[in-house]
Write a structure and sequence with these properties.
This protein is α/β, with parallel strands linked by helices. The chain has 10 helices and 7 strands.
Length: 256
């Protein structure tokens, strides 16, 4: 298994940890990505049918469902699907990937991909997403990235190694989608020492470490919490994020 594949497949065995530790997404980012109808669409007044692609444990799926939108989760990992079904009951969950979705052509209006597009192969995923979207449909990508302008966050990144993937290179879409739009949304997540440990432990690079190296890294995180002036003695603290979003739509007369 390649290094990329090993990282991509590392989350299933720790799905409960992932679901507990990973942050949600800010409502303003979802407002922008789910703005409907998309330009050129004739679907005014109709609720968009949404696919949460690479849905993981359903962190984004839950937010879409809670807006009253019809949503289907697509996720290749059995462990993540099982956690999603438990966390977001009642939402259809299918075994599939960005490169192969077992869904009818034209069956969705919006496909969202949260924290996962960098694990996918755009050359195969883009035409597959275009296939399942109706004409005028939209693809939206989003990533939560820690804001390292805060000193303690910068120190945390030095400890764990920052593998954030929200660069323009990671957000490649291309034809047949129209030119992309990009927005970023700063926000703050409230977290405590235990949950910060879980957050670090849920990262693929940490999951794949040998046990002794993982334990040593988590000790460094505990030491940071115990000594940094912004964190010491606190039961909860603010972890600043920026959510980076990219969206693009199919032409209204498109059919793949």
């Amino acid at each position: 298994m390649t290094d990329h594949a090993a990282h991509a497949n590392s989350f299933g065995p720790v799905a409960d940890l992932y679901d507990r530790a990973r942050p949600t997404y800010p409502a303003v980012a979802l407002d922008w990505l789910l703005e409907w109808p998309a330009p050129g669409s004739s679907s005014a007044g109709v609720l968009p049918r949404v696919i949460d692609l690479g849905a993981g444990t359903g962190k984004l799926t839950r937010l879409i469902r809670d807006r009253g939108l019809p949503v289907t989760a697509v996720e290749p990992s059995p462990g993540m699907r099982a956690q999603l079904a438990a966390s977001v009951p009642g939402v259809p969950v299918v075994d599939g990937s960005a490169e192969s979705m077992p869904l009818p052509s034209g069956s969705a209006d919006v496909v969202l991909v949260a924290q996962a597009w960098h694990w996918m192969d755009p050359a195969r995923a883009v035409p597959e997403v275009a296939r399942v979207l109706a004409p005028g449909g939209r693809l939206g990508l989003l990533w939560n990235v820690r804001d390292d302008r805060a000193d303690w966050v910068r120190r945390l990144d030095e400890i764990i190694g920052n593998r954030d993937c929200a660069s323009d290179e990671a957000a490649v879409i291309g034809a047949p989608f129209e030119p992309v739009e990009r927005r970023s949304f700063p926000w703050v997540h409230t977290i405590g020492p235990s949950l910060l440990q879980d957050l670090v432990a849920s990262r693929s690079a940490v999951i794949l470490l040998p046990a002794d190296e993982r334990a040593a890294l988590l000790r460094e995180v505990r030491q940071l919490v115990a000594t940094h002036p912004d964190l010491v003695g606190r039961t909860d603290f603010s972890l600043p994020y920026v959510t980076y979003c990219t969206r693009a739509s199919l032409p209204s007369n498109s059919r793949s």
